[in-house]
Amino acid sequence: MSIFEYNGSALVAMVGKNCFAIASDRRLGVQLQTIATDFQKIYKIHEKLFIGLSGLATDAQTLYQRLVFRHKLYQLREERDMKPETFASLVSAILYEKRFGPYFCQPVIAGLGDEDKPFICTMDSIGAKELAKDFVVAGTASESLYGACESMFKPDMDAEELFETISQALLSSVDRDCLSGWGGHVYVHTN
Fold first, then answer.
1. Environment class of residue 7 by beta-carbon count within 10 Å: exposed (0-12), middle (13-18) or buried (19+)?
2. How many CA atoms lie within 13 A of 186 on its CB side?
3. Using CA atoms, how far apart are residues 129 and 110, in angstroms rounded to an integer?
4. Nearest C-alpha neighbor of 25 from the set 10, 38, 35
5. Domain tally for the chain?
6. Sign of CA dihedral 27, 178, 6, 88
7. Which domain holds residue 83?
8. Which of 7, 30, 6, 9 is nearest to 142 (CA)?
9. Which strands make up the sheet holding 184-190, listed edge to edge?
10. Model pTM score
């Protein structure tokens, strides 16, 4: 078993028409044993930016604390919030910094950029970015999430349709993965 599968997770981010959604399962486990059924995997950085962290739960919490610290320093220096593209580069740099003893996390970033254009991306544990125009997935349920999202995604969905699509994709995927589950958290953000 890989260390990335130790706690289990399912994360997905999807874009719509001037909106985005990010969703995760709620299970925290130690291999096949469930520890908690309402574990937070999606974190709000600011009003228009969220990050989901799959992988080893302790590393995810540590990485989140470092990201909040760095974002607050940016806010003090620049007197504005980070754009999603800038934040993705920051996350990538922090992960690459630790490449010889990496955080065992796979982040999913979703936000609204300039002119309320949705931005989503994911990366591996050493910060190699994967940008997408439709959806990104991460976690132990990623294989089934890819299939569900491929079959359900349509371009230019409004917020309500996006919520229904991402929710159904998440729920149908975690049913096929014994390391994730117990429902989900879904965040939909419009302009």
1. buried
2. 19
3. 13
4. 10
5. 1
6. negative
7. 3-190
8. 9
9. 135-139, 10-15, 19-25, 184-190
10. 0.93
3-state class percentages of the chain: helix first, strand second, coil last, to nearest 5: 35, 30, 30
Closest C-alpha to 60, from 7, 101, 12: 7
The domain that holds 74 is classified in CATH as 3.60.20.10
Contact call for residues 123 and 106 (beta carbons, < 8 A)? yes
What's the pLDDT tens digit per position in 162-174? 999 999 999 999 9
Asked if residues 86 and 130 have their Cβ atoms less than 8 Å apart, the reply is: no
d(CA 91, CA 56) in angstroms, rounded, equals 16
Pairing, β 28-30 against β 33-36? antiparallel
**190 and 159 in contact (C-beta within 8 Å)?**
yes
Specify whether the CB–CB gap between 45 and 71 falls below 8 A: yes
Residues counted in the chain: 191
Confirm if 5 and 141 have CB atoms less than 8 A apart.
no
Segment 38-60, tens digit of pLDDT: 999 999 999 999 999 999 999 99
Query: 185 near 167, Cβ under 8 Å?
Result: no
DSSP state of 113: -
Rounded to whole angstroms, the Cα distance separating 146 from 187 reads: 19
Q: Within a 10 A sphere around the Cβ of 128, how many other Cβ atoms?
A: 11
